[in-house]
Design goal:
Length: 374
């Protein structure tokens, strides 16, 4: 194990310890600092009343902090804080002296247990009132300012740590949610790619198999040619699936259009196309998926005899329109393939429109040519 890995392990251990103790730990660590001296003084002086009040303040302070960091209603912690303030009032009434430790302790308790929108205001109020009390008791401006500074620092630092830990918890929760959403999104991408790949490929294989069945007896050469094409299609589909699984698959519109035209013509569908313009890579890939999905729908559902593919490009938008003269009303216009196509288009800031009637089915895609949207 290298020195760097040891350091990382130690950092992880320290971070885990801090996560477990960051809530009550920071507030409780100041308890012996602020309360040890007055408790020992009361013991040495034999002052049972002072010792009782100091111990009561200590116990109630611990309860307040622990309540604030457990799943108890907010008002319970606020009631405990009010009890601490009442004990401070008792401390002043009986004039036990040694008040300097009380207000910083109260400020820490308030910053920990009182609802967060009011905590800082209470801390400032304690600092001001405590400064006046200390100033009148000792008739010293220096003591009053030091007392107020100690109270503000104790309360404000606790308040800021409370806000920070709350923010960290929110960020961790958000990170877990984003990780979950990323997993869901990747599953959807994988499902969509496999549907688009295998659905089209299997449809092509079915068409080729039907052609082999028709030509097997009359034209063995044509049947053999179609069998070779099935073999090639199978190899290509296997490579495509491997690439899709790896997440590196990138389709080209011109290549996909050429393959789709060949398959449709083998199935007896006349295809009218136009030259393919140069497109941005994301739009080119989107149109490639679109022509594959449309070709699959024509083979499976349309029973069409003609199909046309038109592409138009202006300064800001590329438009792809694929239409056929098949049984438009019987086509599945809301299936997985078109849903996946809509998701792809929306990622680029584009739109997918479908039109179906008894005269055929039309698929139109509008996509910005400037690249992917934010």
């Amino acid at each position: 194990m290298t020195k760097q890995s040891i350091s990382t392990d130690n950092d992880d251990y320290v971070s885990q310890w801090a996560d477990r103790t960051r809530g009550p730990g920071f507030a409780l660590v100041w308890l012996p600092v602020l309360m040890l001296s007055p408790i020992l003084t009361a013991i040495l002086d034999g002052d049972l009343t002072a010792l009782t009040i100091h111990l009561a303040i200590t116990v109630l302070y611990v309860v307040t902090i622990l309540v604030a960091h457990n799943s108890l209603p907010q008002r319970v912690g606020e009631l405990c804080t009010a009890g601490l303030m009442a004990l401070v009032v008792v401390q002043f009434i009986v004039s036990l002296g040694g008040q300097g430790f009380l207000y910083p302790l109260l400020a820490i308790a308030a910053a920990t247990a009182v609802r967060i929108r009011a905590a800082l205001g209470i801390v400032m109020g304690l600092a001001v009132s405590g400064s006046f009390a200390e100033g009148f008791a000792t008739m010293s401006l220096s003591n009053a300012l030091q007392f107020g500074f100690a109270t503000v620092m104790a309360g404000a630092s606790t308040y800021l740590i409370r806000r920070l830990t709350t923010t960290v918890d929110d960020l961790r929760t958000t990170r877990r949610r984003l990780a979950g959403l990323a997993v869901v999104e990747e599953r959807q991408r994988f499902s969509r790619d496999l549907h688009d790949l295998l659905g089209h490929t299997l449809s092509v294989i079915v068409v080729k198999a039907e052609a082999i069945r028709r030509f097997a007896a009359a034209d063995s050469a044509a049947a053999i040619s179609h069998a070779r094409e099935i073999e090639d299609i199978g190899r290509t589909a296997l490579a495509d699936v491997r690439q899709a699984v790896a997440g590196y698959r990138e389709m080209r519109f011109a290549d996909e259009l050429a393959r789709t035209v060949t398959v449709l013509e083998d199935a007896g569908v006349k295809v009218d196309t136009m030259p393919v313009p140069n497109l941005d890579s994301p739009v080119d890939t989107l149109f490639a998926w679109a022509v594959r999905e449309a070709g699959t729908n024509v083979l499976r559902h349309a029973h069409a005899s003609t199909c046309s593919v038109e592409v138009s490009v202006d300064e800001t938008t590329a438009v792809l329109e694929i239409s056929d003269n098949g049984d438009g009303m019987s086509q599945n216009t809301s299936g997985t393939g078109l849903a996946g196509l809509r998701e792809r288009a929306e990622r680029l800031g584009g739109q997918v429109h479908t039109h179906s009637n008894s005269h055929g089915f039309a698929l139109t895609i509008h996509a910005p040519i400037a690249g992917e949207s934010q």
